[in-house]
Amino acid sequence: MSNLNSFDFCQTLDPKIFTRISEWIADTITTISIFIVPEGSGDESLGIVMKFVDSLGSLKSVSIVGHVNIDVTPIILSLRKHSSSLITLKLALCTIDDDAMKSLSEHDQLREIVFHQLHFSSNHEIPLPLISLPRLKSLNYWEYNSTNSPVHRIIRDNGENLTHLNIHTNIERCIKLFDTISTNCPFLISFTTPISEQRDFIALFSILERCNHLKRLCIHEFNIININEGYIVLYRIHTRFFIVSENQ
């Protein structure tokens, strides 16, 4: 087992197995994926996972997949030991709070964040401090109903470094979000987003005009049946295409 560097497991695994694995390969595992199920999401079960994470030498990639309303903040906080090595963090279908978000700034090697359908419990009276991730390059963010989304804050605080964005939201704020991206991400190379309304399509103009390093634009789930052609003129300047509004 000396070559084993990745371990996927459910948090209901017998504690004895965790102990034996940490004895065998604690210094070789760099990637873990944790699957949290409802019947094993109590404090004792999560505590075993945290102890196991703490026993590992250094982690480069962590993925946590849970279910609605399960708070994984304790596990995120337990990753502080690996703040100098963690490169990729993926969270899906779980809840984190302000303390978890604040702790991200301790991970100065973090380059990729994937947040899929998270819930954020937040103290509105105390605003989040700067979320500084000096090496963050890629943000993959999918949400559907979160009212405390930190996506604007992450982009504002780290836009100078971001080169790849995959943003999916159906909340009524596409125009503001696209403006935040165009203002803060001058070195953006790749941008992926769904488009469901004509105004969302028009809102892309600011990104196309300001993000001069953009090489890849992927518009998926394009659900607009008819676009008013009078709004749009397609210009080709050198080898790049710009979409601009006739009303500008």
Structure, described:
The protein has 248 residues and is of the alpha/beta class. The chain has a single domain, classed as Leucine-rich repeat, LRR (right-handed beta-alpha superhelix) (Alpha-Beta Horseshoe). It is built from eight helices and 13 strands. The strands form three sheets. Strands 1-2-3-4-6-8-9-10-11 form a nine-stranded parallel beta sheet, with no helix packed on it. The protein has a two-stranded parallel sheet with strand order 5-7. β9, α6 and β10 form a beta-alpha-beta unit. α5 packs parallel to α6. The protein is elongated, with a radius of gyration of 21 Å.
Keywords:
nine-stranded parallel beta sheet, alpha/beta, 248 residues, Leucine-rich repeat, LRR (right-handed beta-alpha superhelix), single chain
Topology (elements, then pairings):
Blueprint: E1 6-10, H1 15-25, E2 31-35, H2 43-55, E3 61-65, H3 73-78, E4 88-92, E5 95-97, H4 98-103, E6 112-116, E7 119-121, E8 138-142, H5 151-158, E9 164-168, H6 174-184, E10 190-194, H7 198-203, H8 205-210, E11 216-220, E12 232-237, E13 240-245
Parallel strand pairs: 1-2, 2-3, 3-4, 4-6, 5-7, 6-8, 8-9, 9-10, 10-11
Antiparallel strand pairs: 12-13
CATH superfamily: Ribonuclease Inhibitor
CATH architecture: Alpha-Beta Horseshoe
What share of residues is helical? Answer: 25-40%
Number of domains: 1
- Helix and strand pattern: EHEHEHEEHEEEHEHEHHEEE
CATH topology: Leucine-rich repeat, LRR (right-handed beta-alpha superhelix)
Structural class: alpha/beta
Summarize it.
This protein has 248 residues and is of the alpha/beta class. The chain has 8 helices and 13 strands.
